[in-house]
Amino acid sequence: MSEEPDEAYDTTHRAFLQAFLARPAMTFEDAKPILARIFSIKEERSFLVNDVTEADFRNYVGTLNAALGPLDYEVRSALPQHGGRARVYALVNTTSDALTQLATAHSADEIAFIKRVLDAMFETHNRERAEIMAVRAMDAVQLHRPPLQGGGGGGGGATQRSSVPADESQAGLEGGQSQSVKAITMKQAEDLLASLKEEGWLERSRRGYYSLSPRALMELRNWLVDTYNDPPDEGNPNQWQRIKMCEACREIVTVGQRCSKRRCNCRLHNICVENFFRTQTERKCPVCKEDWTGRNFVGEKADPRVNNRSSGTSNSRRTPRTNNGDDATMLVEDDE
């Protein structure tokens, strides 16, 4: 965060902190009426919503972070990946991963289900050929039952590489799932997914795909890298990793675009594509200098099932394309 405090932490900041605690995330527009009310009480005069400036907001966030840092909390921000330009702010724990926090409100069996959903997102549905990093609602519900001993933890043969502590509240989340972890019902799985969406951990798209929200990505960034990425191979600069950072903003990309050259690891958020190429004379990959086509996707649009369903009603099509010995055929879809 670049916000710098210019005043001491007081009761008004505590009130603003309570607002963050009461909701999973907020934008500047969400914060304006909250700060207007706080300022009205503090100054004993009426403050209108439009009297609150971004400088006021940044100052309050900066003061909060200065006070919360020693307590291992921070207000972080990220741009939404599914459209919209309003930066999202959330209060996150900088040392405890989100699964540990969720364990205080959910049973071990529910946490095991959540971990299976994450494995489905970042292992089963995240391969070199299709970096989907999302799971259809119907597929997520099918994960209500733990796999047989020795099976994949995320469904569909996902490789087990979890590093989540296997304490009582998270039994069976490290390595293969423990036999002590029991199935939950399909109704419980549906309700839990809906609850996680309501709490701001998950997002559900119009196509019915669940993916991690900006708040969850901010909370889980380090855990996702540690859990799903392989140790760096210094002898292989093109090593493929499941969790990648946007070449422009350096935040995790789960929705966006990828270089058309498969062996290139360059990824960009959709909004970062616009900003990055705005001043460029040519749309070239910033890493390998291949033409940036805008037709190679990260997220649910990378799912061949999305392309197949769209082929009869949109400009989506199967286009032969050769990229320096990479794929002979690649599914592409015109931008919506």
UniProtKB/TrEMBL annotation:
A GO biological-process term: double-strand break repair via homologous recombination
Keyword set, alphabetical order: DNA damage, DNA recombination, DNA repair, Metal-binding, Nucleus, Transferase, Ubl conjugation pathway, Zinc, Zinc-finger
Principal EC category: transferase
Pfam family, one: SMC_Nse1
Main location: nucleus
UniProt GO MF annotations: ubiquitin protein ligase activity; zinc ion binding
Annotated GO CC locations: nucleus; Smc5-Smc6 complex
Reaction catalyzed: S-ubiquitinyl-[E2 ubiquitin-conjugating enzyme]-L-cysteine + [acceptor protein]-L-lysine = [E2 ubiquitin-conjugating enzyme]-L-cysteine + N(6)-ubiquitinyl-[acceptor protein]-L-lysine
Domain of life the protein comes from: Eukaryota
Subunit organization: Component of the Smc5-Smc6 complex.
Protein name (database record): Non-structural maintenance of chromosomes element 1 homolog
Source species of the chain: Lineolata rhizophorae
Taxonomic lineage of the native organism: Eukaryota, Fungi, Dikarya, Ascomycota, Pezizomycotina
